[in-house]
């Protein structure tokens, strides 16, 4: 799915800013039919929850409405006019005037509404977007809506991060020509000093396709004709972790000499492969250092923010991180583009967090019901998960920074039914993208002895909390158990192991000379213990600390003002552990030579 861009044949108007905003109420049926009266205003992009002081808005369960007036530029007669919503969390409905023009399920992938028939160039129209925050057993991620005793609807979910909702990413108005490029797929390979770029251009109607590849100086290094083809780049400069290099593929649609459409796509030439316990980028073993992150900041919630984007990547660089996982949902496309340009490696995760009835908000328990069953997570959940994987791959397939798909976080992979649920999803991901390895983040109850799906995946990503949820405060016992378990995985499977989560909560300023949980010192000793173990086990191919920064969580008694496992505070100040990591990861530069 192509990101809207300004090109020689397409125009783009950004619709971010203040929108009229109202919570859905039975008192105003069909609120899209008129101007939202008495409405307050909400910022786009932003989650709406923390903008307001009114708990009825913050805790509302169901639809909210965003509305604004939009003028179609005068010169847009002739082509198609489209509204793009980069994310409506977790479901969206778009109205042009009174007309429903698009509906979408899933809070972290974009969708378009073609509004050509409902608008007139040069004139204004009323754009209303409904957004629902409801999670059920057939949404990804899942949740349940229950009724409180006094008749309020209450949203419960199976993950600890706060269920932020709204228009957290940009909204766009754009024009495309009637005969146009609808998609581009690029697969790259390396053959000695030559890079190959297999491209495939999809179009809305038959027309001649011409492509041109430029290097970073703007020089044309290869050209091709036809909708599919292979470009060869002699002495290609590869996209490397820590040393990004992007070529620009310019695709053109022509009728004779007339340019019907053009679309530029920045691509990186690189390869990704798994060989035994090694993760190879461009044929060289790569060791992941970095974090599981969240899209999370004060006031904006999950709202995309370019300032935080730049600053977070600065901190990744400062600390020596070469990668991160988009825990626990696909991040804004701007984040991936930035990673492409700056050589940061991304493990791209779906929003499938919480397919596990034995885990609630990061805490352990025994599920009262089986996780995978027709009453709990069955065929409909699986279908929603499959659709989400299709949309994720469609959006992110061309990013060189994305080296692997993570299909779920901490599913109940040790329970009966897990294999039946996951086998088709793994096949689907492989058929959509045969070039990237697939992984899942393994919950601590799923061990090398009882896990039922590990063999289906290329890389095993383990989330482990020895020393926190288990053996809290006893790092000596934690060290023995961690090592024993990692050795078990390494002996059982000839696959790379990535520690995709390990971390301890720490409150800034709370200190101790002893191993006291919640202190900065304990977080630091905890990480140092894990690192000693990793260094003793060859199959460990990467370490992603949980979490990059403190983040907001849903209601519950087990958190103090959010999850405090951040190595940085929520406002991005380093805790002591940041220095421990920095010393270690800067030394690793020689493990990952560019
Ligand atoms: C893991 C989850 C993660 C939580 C973490 C924690 O994958 O989302 O935030 O636990 O409890 O189980 O800190």
Automatic annotation (TrEMBL):
Keywords: Glycosidase, Hydrolase. The keyword Hydrolase applies. It comes from the Bacteria. One of its GO terms (molecular function) is beta-glucuronidase activity. Residues 272-588 form the Glycoside hydrolase family 2 catalytic domain. Residues 179-270 form the Glycoside hydrolase family 2 immunoglobulin-like beta-sandwich domain. SUPFAM superfamilies: (Trans)glycosidases, beta-Galactosidase/glucuronidase domain, Galactose-binding domain-like. Residues 14-177 form the Glycosyl hydrolases family 2 sugar binding domain. PANTHER family: BETA-GLUCURONIDASE (PTHR10066:SF67). This is Beta-glucuronidase. It comes from Lentzea alba.
